[in-house]
Amino acid sequence: MTIADRDAGAAARAAGELDVRAVTMDVTDAASVTAGVAEATAALGPIEVLVNNAGVVAGGGPLVSLPLEVFDTVVAVNLRGTFTVTQAVAGQMIESGTRGRIVNISSIGARQPTAASATTRPPRPPWTPSRAPPRWSSPATASGSTASRRGPSTRR
Ligand SMILES: NC(=O)c1ccc[n+]([C@@H]2O[C@H](COP(=O)([O-])OP(=O)(O)OC[C@H]3O[C@@H](n4cnc5c(N)ncnc54)[C@H](O)[C@@H]3O)[C@@H](O)[C@H]2O)c1
To answer: What pLDDT score does 115 carry?
Structure first.
């Protein structure tokens, strides 16, 4: 297993605890992703399982005053970064014939807005971006219900 993070120290600490490898990689930088994937592959062979865990929570307060730089940062890491790493690893999985698995870590906040997290007003679209598309009419969104009341997931 390899832990990739833009924070080299954090990656090394986590990797040390788990006795695995660490690589420094910034998911917002395509060249860094290419290099990180290549380094991990050179050490351990083709990647079989990718977990897109890097993510940031930024901003807060009313949407109307959210600085564009904050919006851009969230999209660059949570959305574009997930895409960039997935693209690099999926291409490699196909090429090597690996029966790969890709896991994207998201948040309940992607489908259930939280007051004062994305907006201080009652939740109304649109709000601060995240990875998964919001489901405006889902039971979770409408009632603020818990995960146990959500519909069946199609994810594996
Ligand atoms: N902690 C929670 O309550 C919570 C809730 C919902 C979702 N999540 C999601 O779970 C995941 C992990 O959360 P966490 O609480 O462990 O967060 P964390 O901040 O402890 O870990 C996130 C890691 O992502 C790394 N990272 C950030 N930007 C990066 C980049 N550009 N390139 C590479 N690495 C980058 C950070 O250095 C950090 O080590 C995130 O995707 C987060 O959105 C967390």
So the answer is: 67
Q: Contact 108/57 with Cβ under 8 angstroms?
A: no
Domain boundaries along the sequence of the chain: 2-149
* Beta carbon of 107 within 6 Å of any ligand 1 atom: yes
Residues of the chain with pLDDT below 70 are 115-156
pTM exceeding the 0.85 threshold for the entire prediction: no
Q: Which fold has domain 2-149?
A: Rossmann fold (3.40.50)
Nearest CA to ligand 1 atom 25: 54
Alpha-carbon torsion 20, 23, 24, 27, what sign? negative
Nearest CA owner, ligand 1 atom 3: 107
